[in-house]
Design brief:
Length: 187
């Protein structure tokens, strides 16, 4: 009875401290510690590991949601034999993400349907998994977003927001709808 009250008090205190993963895993980690006769430090380390793992998973989910990457485009499901002229070694070197750390740009060009979007999205996914802030834009969407900031004079804030990203992926550069802007005079 006393142990149940103590466990409930610990769970409630973990929740108050916003340590929800520790609260959720407390009983399982306690059972494991008792069955394996773990020491206090080993028990505590496992409990803290559960919290850290939960934090990392939520951070990754948040980065992926903000990145707005197309679904199901990863290196794991990329057909490496699809393009015979593809420099696979160079592409796999990009997976190290050194270009982000070195503040370099990468331009992926080719004909329609050759896998440019898939490669770019896969790089965005790898970047999110590595802890980088990424964002995927269709060029038309990015231009529309920036154009809309002119109306409410938030262009500087929008550019600052873009500058805080570690990786900006701009896709479909060849598909721009032209919009007439300007003054028309009727006589």
């Amino acid at each position: 009875m006393k142990n149940n009250l103590l466990v409930d008090r610990l769970k409630e205190n973990f929740r108050l401290l916003r340590l929800k993963d520790m609260a959720q895993n407390l009983e399982a980690v306690l059972e494991k510690a008792q069955s394996e006769k773990q020491g206090h430090l080993e028990f505590l380390a496992e409990l803290v590991d559960a919290q850290v793992d939960g934090f990392k998973n939520r951070s990754l989910e948040r980065r992926l949601k903000q990145a707005n990457l197309p679904r199901n485009m990863s290196f794991e499901n990329f057909d490496w034999n699809f393009q015979p002229g593809l420099n696979v070694e160079q592409l796999k070197n990009l997976k190290t993400l050194n270009f982000i750390s070195n503040h370099q740009s990468v331009l992926i060009s080719g004909k329609t349907g050759c896998g440019k979007s898939h490669i770019a999205s896969a790089l965005g996914l790898v970047a999110c998994e590595a802890g980088f802030r990424s964002k995927f834009y269709m060029l038309q969407e990015l231009l529309a977003y920036l154009y809309s900031t002119l109306a409410d004079e938030t262009t500087v804030e929008a550019i600052e927001k873009l500058a805080r990203l570690d990786l900006i992926i701009i896709d479909r550069i060849g598909f721009i709808r032209k919009k007439r802007i300007g003054l028309q005079v009727y006589a």
